[in-house]
Every structure is written in C-alpha cells, then in structure tokens.
Amino acid sequence: MVPTTFRIATSTDLPVILALLADDAIARSRTGYLEEPVPAVRAAFDEIAADPNNELIVGVREGEVIATLQLTYIPGLSRGGMRRALVEAVRVRSDLRGQRIGELLMQDAMERARARGCGLMQLTTDKRRLEAHRFYARLGFEASHEGMKRSL
Hints:
Order of helices and strands: EHHHEEHEHEH
Strand content: 25-35%
Structural class: alpha+beta
Distance between the termini: 45 Å
Largest sheet: 5 strands, mixed
Number of helices: 6
Oligomer: single chain
Strand order of the largest sheet: 1-2-3-4-5
Radius of gyration: 15 Å
C-alpha cells in the first residue's frame, strides 16, 4: 500500500481541495460549491488558516493531495468545560475510496483533537449518505443526536 501522509493545507492546495469537495453529487446539488477559488473562497481559506481553532487537513500520496477535512476545536462550558472537535467536509478522491484512506484521515484528525485536549469528536453527515453513516459507525461514531440546520 502506498503511504498517505497528513498535513495542514497550504494555499496552493486550494484548487485540489475544491475539486475534492465538488466531486460529490450531493455537494454539487448545493449552492456554494465552486471548483475555482473565487475571492470569497480564498478569504475563507485565509480565515481558516489564521484561526488557531481551525485546521484544514489534507492527505497526500506520492506528492498529490487525495483527501481533505476541516477540523475545528470548540471550547465549551458543558461537560465540565470539555473541548470538542468538529469534523466537516470529509472527502477522499473518488477513485481511491475503499482503500482505508478515509479511516487514516479520521484517525489523524482524532489524534490531533486528543493532542489539543478534546474529549469528544462530533460531525454531521447528510441523511442520504448511507455509506458514510456505515463508515463513521465502523470508526466508533454514534448517531446520538438529531442535527438541524437553517439557512440565514
């Protein structure tokens, strides 16, 4: 198996990250998924990169970005002040799925969260993503809450 390493994304990774995010039928059905780094997307990347409580992680294999996720560290008052980590926008290049890259990416994220003092990792996943639900359950995640969203 070709090794995959994980690191913090740089601005040069942005076009590939956007392509990974858009390489998904559900994502393409939503507004706001662009394959080109328009100024608002570059500004969002810069904000994430500058925020010590956010990390945009990429998986790299043979010098090529093949996976990504965003990890946000959240301080909280509940559970005795426990910090938690929020995982968003998990993607593995479609032709490489099924090779445990997503599992390694999530393990890396969990290690990063533990190192930052988090006692809990949480995420949301679209109800239509049945394969993703099985994937997260295999990693020990439980469907413990009902998530809700509202456009502003």
